[in-house]
Amino acid sequence: MNRRILISRVAFFLFLFCLQAHAQSVSIIDVKAMNRVFVKPEPSTFRKGDSLIQLSYRHNNTVIYFQSPGTDHLYEYKARQLFSQPITTRDSFAVLSNLPNGELLFEVKDARYPNSRPARLKIIVESPLWLRWWFLPMMFLYGLVFVSAGLYLLYRYRLRQQLRLLSVRENIARDLHDDMGSYLSSISMLSQSVLNIAQKDPKHARLLVDKIGETARQVMDSMSDIVWSVNPENDSMTQVVVRMRDVATDLLGTQDITLHQDIDEAVPHIHLPLEQRRDFFLIYKEALTNIAKYASASHVWVRLQRSGSLLILVVQDDGVGFDTQQPVGQNPLGGNGLKNMHTRAQKLGGTLSIQSTRGGGTTLTLQILGV
């Protein structure tokens, strides 16, 4: 009796095992993504037997195919993140649309055997960059870097502006000390000389008075040049050209000298910073001053042109000329005009050449970079 009961129980468990094996025979055979318009299709990476598949957020519409032996099929599948209840169907596929970003578990089994173990497929939908956990912190860091860089560049710009302003002030202070100090010292000494010889030599005293007047006019001209150079209304090359014409008229107009000016139409479009504009103008003025004082010229030619990125100034006269190795046209107050012009040309980062022979006139050529 016990043997019969044991045999019947074994047979029963074998029967359940066979049913269980048959019920577990559902398998997932393929996974295909449904292509979207304007989205480049991607080939499926799923292979039969895989338990994991990764999808892009652009291809989050997919069809899962499954099968089981026999002809009478009844499937039950579920995905907790998508369906609140399991879905029963006789179709051998499931359409999953608009899968959310992240992980979800798809399960399918034979619906005729509720206790059977389902076939499982883990689906991972990759999130777009802007929805990943590190995106906002990274954007914050990038924004912080950009803001810091902007503030640093603003600081550097303000610093350059302050240094530029400081440089302008130093140049003005140096010019006032060098030129004005020299002129005023000369006026003081000449005035003292006039007092000493006024009674003894009236003629010589009148010459000294004339010299005082000439020096005072030089002081006024120098002050006028300084004020003009720092005036923001004179930032354009058009104003520089106007100033050049006015100075030429003042220096050469009282003498029997014919002035010929040739200004290129492209010159007004050039921009020179304040420091360069001032040095450029003073070289030109020094050249005309030397012509008016020492050249004994009949004609003066001034050419200002643009050649590529170069601004070229040519001042030529038909005067007596001089030996460039031993210049005699020195400032009576002790400064060397030619030396000053070369120094200013070096500050401009340009080249200054002076060609002259005795009796053959003089040609001054200045070349600097213009913006």
How would you describe this protein?
- There is one protein chain.
- With 371 residues, the protein is of the alpha+beta class.
- The chain has 3 domains: 2-128, Immunoglobulins (Immunoglobulin-like), CATH 2.60.40; 133-230; 231-371, Heat Shock Protein 90.
- The protein has 6 helices and 13 strands.
- It has a 5-stranded mixed beta sheet, with no helix packed on it.
- β12 (351-356) and β13 (362-369) form a beta hairpin.
- α2 (135-197) packs antiparallel against α3 (202-230) and α4 (237-252) runs parallel beside α5.
- It starts with a helix and ends with a strand.
- The model is unreliable at 329-335 (pLDDT under 50).
- Pfam families: HATPase_c (PF02518), HisKA_3 (PF07730).
- Residues 278-367 form the Histidine kinase/HSP90-like ATPase domain.
- GO terms for molecular function: phosphorelay sensor kinase activity; protein dimerization activity.
- Residues 1-23 form the signal peptide.
Beta-strand content estimate: 15-25%
Average residue-wise pLDDT: 82
CATH superfamily of the largest domain: Histidine kinase-like ATPase, C-terminal domain
CATH architecture of the largest domain: 2-Layer Sandwich
Report, as a whole number of angstroms, the end-to-end distance.
Answer: 116 Å
Summarize the helix and strand pattern as letters: HEEEEEEEEHHHEHEEHEE
**CATH class assignment of the largest domain:** Alpha Beta
Computed over alpha carbons, the radius of gyration is 48 Å
Structurally, the number of domains stands at: 3
How many distinct beta strands? 13
> Number of DSSP helices?
6
Structural class: alpha+beta
Strand order of the largest sheet: 2-8-7-4-5
User: Runs with pLDDT <50, length 5+?
Assistant: 329-335
Might you state the CATH topology name of the largest domain?
Heat Shock Protein 90
Helix content: 40-55%
Characterize the largest beta sheet: strand count, sense, and whether it forms a barrel.
5 strands, mixed
GO molecular function: phosphorelay sensor kinase activity; protein dimerization activity
Keywords: Kinase, Membrane, Signal, Transferase, Transmembrane, Transmembrane helix, Two-component regulatory system
Pfam family, one: HATPase_c
GO cellular component, one term: membrane
